[in-house]
Write a structure and sequence with these properties.
By secondary structure, this protein is α/β, with parallel strands linked by helices. The chain has 7 helices and 6 strands; from the N terminus they run βααβαβαβααββα. Helix 4 links the parallel strand 3 and strand 4. Bound molecules: 3-methylbut-3-enyl trihydrogen diphosphate (2 copies) and magnesium ion (MG).
Length: 238
């Protein structure tokens, strides 16, 4: 018989799951298992990022946030850091060449200061060129949850605040007015948050899978969505 794969029907999400966030982990191991250099895993991971954004759109999810590079990832060998930045830069080139094709607004979360000025400029142009779409893709780049909170507090101090509220802090995070993630998915088998969206995920549902990021497909996404809808979110109530 001709080999074929049944097309997964993705569950359709409503307002309860309007923001999904991914800790895209496991690229290096994906490559190592194939006897390839880690960089090949990052290339496969970058391709899968595009597929997953489309799948989330197919499932009716309005906001997708991905953890692309943490404030701690600078500890990696320079060659690997350079390849990750190169992949991001290439992705932005494609976005800028085909504006509107993906029909998503791109936003970057994190401190841009240590990034290469050419990359910062591409980020600025891509954010500007894709503004005003209904769907949002946040790319967390040089992002750290602690760094983000410190950044917010310093912004408030420089505004002359001497007493701050939760609202003040939320509004000064990189995510500013965006809705908190409803579901955070981590691939790669580790059960930790690695400094991702600490403030915003206070009441997020978490889904951990051993699947490595380049292998996250419609079936895994569908399983995560179904698991999300099977849970009862109590927010401390009954
Ligand atoms: C991707 O996976 C995450 C990034 C920092 C880009 P890793 O590169 O951490 O892959 P593993 O965890 O070593 O397999
Ligand atoms: C988390 O993955 C960061 C990103 C996915 C960008 P890491 O591979 O850096 O996390 P740890 O080091 O295993 O906690
Ligand atoms: Mg990792």
């Amino acid at each position: 018989m001709w080999p074929f794969r049944k097309k997964t029907v993705l569950p359709q999400c409503d307002d309860r799951l309007s923001h999904i966030a991914f800790i895209m982990d496991g690229n290096g191991r994906w490559a190592e298992r194939r006897g390839l250099p880690r960089e090949a895993g990052h290339r496969a991971g970058a391709e899968n990022f595009r597929r997953v954004v489309r799948l989330c759109g197919d499932a009716g999810i309005r906001t997708v946030t991905v953890y692309a590079f943490s404030t701690e990832n600078w500890k990696r060998p320079q060659k690997e850091v350079e390849e990750l930045m190169r992949l991001l830069s290439r992705y932005l080139d494609e976005v800028l060449e085909k504006i509107g094709q993906e029909q998503v607004t791109l936003r970057f979360l994190g401190d841009p200061a240590p990034l290469d000025p050419a990359l910062r400029e591409k980020i600025r142009r891509a954010e500007q060129a894709t503004a005003d779409q209904d769907r949002v893709v946040n790319v967390a780049l040089n992002y750290g949850g602690r760094d983000e909170i410190v950044h917010a507090v310093n912004a408030l101090l420089s505004q002359g605040k001497r007493h701050v509220t939760e609202e003040d802090i939320s509004r000064n995070l990189y995510t500013a007015a965006q809705r908190d993630p409803d579901l955070v998915v981590r691939t790669g088998g580790d059960i930790r948050t690695s400094n991702f969206l600490m403030w915003q995920s206070a009441y997020a549902e978490y889904y951990f899978t051993d699947v490595l990021w380049p292998d996250l497909d419609a079936d895994v996404l569908a399983a995560a969505i179904r698991e999300f809808y099977s849970r009862k979110r109590r927010y401390g109530g009954l």
